[in-house]
User: Which sequence fits this backbone?
């Protein structure tokens, strides 16, 4: 079926049997099989979800979920029979947000797809969609790291630049002590104990060789003195539920830039439903039904198929008091 609104040489195949499983799916503008492939993709180097867990939304704009202190007040709720009950007005809407749409067309030359299926039974459409998701995910990881490692996004007393013997690569440094002090600042501001720590790869490798880390872990039931310190052991050392390492990077070979750099982020993050009044550090608002792969179309001028992959998301810092940023962590 050819449409005048499409570029010359482009044929819309959204209603053909080969590229949409049903007429209903075609009308919905989604390829359900490739969308499942896209949503199922994950990269262990990407850690943004620990600071910016997904929150489904039904519109491309709305209000950031920000909670007040209404539920944290000391109140005398005792009442006599027949007396008026007390009332609590509850609200959680903050500043406005608007979702960002990211769209990428996966171009699959006909020759490559035919040869891949014939010679190796490789589904190049699925492989191409996973590649598209990788590209989109990397942009979101960069955005998340930029947000979380920008000191201007924190309260003034919730960020510190380490130097000299305070850096966690120094033999005299006490990372656990520094983190406990940061935990207390978050607790004082939010009444929540931080449960998540995200560090860059350089910081992780410095911690594995830190004398204080090694000494403390010697006395744990799971002591592994002859083995490298693990992420799980570092979670125990810092007493956090999630200790994760951001290893993703971008750029050119030999000149890559690590997304999370020489930083460590401590935060209270609500990884479940935001329906309860939790002062979570951040969220990732995601339009329901996304990310998704739209029905393929044929680009005759390139003898190729195009699989459009679309994402509708926006990462926001909802509670800056629920986070603490350590900068220049390792020498």
Assistant:
């Amino acid at each position: 079926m050819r449409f005048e609104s499409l570029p010359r040489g482009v044929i819309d195949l959204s209603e053909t049997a080969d590229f949409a499983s049903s007429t209903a799916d075609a009308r919905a503008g989604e390829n359900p099989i490739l969308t499942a492939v896209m949503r199922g993709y994950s990269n262990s180097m990407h850690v943004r979800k620990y600071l910016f867990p997904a929150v489904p939304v039904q519109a491309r704009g709305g209000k950031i979920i920000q909670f007040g202190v209404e539920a944290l007040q000391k109140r005398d709720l005792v009442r006599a029979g027949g007396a008026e009950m007390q009332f609590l007005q509850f609200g959680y809407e903050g500043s406005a947000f608007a979702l960002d749409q990211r769209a990428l067309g996966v171009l699959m030359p006909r020759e490559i797809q035919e040869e891949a299926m014939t010679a190796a039974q490789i589904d190049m459409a699925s492989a191409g969609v996973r590649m598209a998701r990788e590209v989109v995910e990397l942009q979101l990881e960069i955005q998340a790291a930029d947000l979380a490692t920008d000191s201007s996004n924190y309260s003034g007393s919730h960020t510190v630049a380490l130097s000299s013997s305070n850096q966690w690569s120094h033999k005299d440094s006490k990372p656990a002590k520094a983190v406990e002090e940061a935990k207390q600042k978050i607790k004082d501001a939010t009444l929540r104990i931080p449960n998540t720590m995200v560090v860059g790869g350089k910081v992780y490798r410095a911690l594995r060789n830190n004398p204080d880390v090694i000494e403390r872990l010697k006395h744990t039931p799971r002591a592994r003195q002859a083995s490298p310190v693990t992420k799980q052991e570092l979670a125990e050392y810092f007493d956090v539920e999630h200790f994760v390492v951001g290893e993703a990077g971008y750029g050119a070979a030999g000149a890559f830039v690590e997304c999370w750099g020489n930083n460590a982020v401590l935060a209270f993050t609500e990884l479940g439903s935001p329906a309860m009044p939790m002062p979570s550090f951040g969220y990732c608002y995601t339009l329901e039904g996304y990310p998704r792969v739209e029905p393929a179309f044929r680009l005759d001028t390139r003898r190729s198929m195009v699989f459009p992959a679309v994402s509708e998301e926006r990462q926001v810092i909802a509670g800056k008091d629920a986070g603490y940023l350590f900068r220049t962590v390792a020498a």
About this structure: Residues 177 and 238 are 9 Å apart (CA to CA). The chain has eight helices and 16 strands. The chain has one domain: 10-68+93-327. Residues 1-27 have pLDDT under 50 and may be disordered.
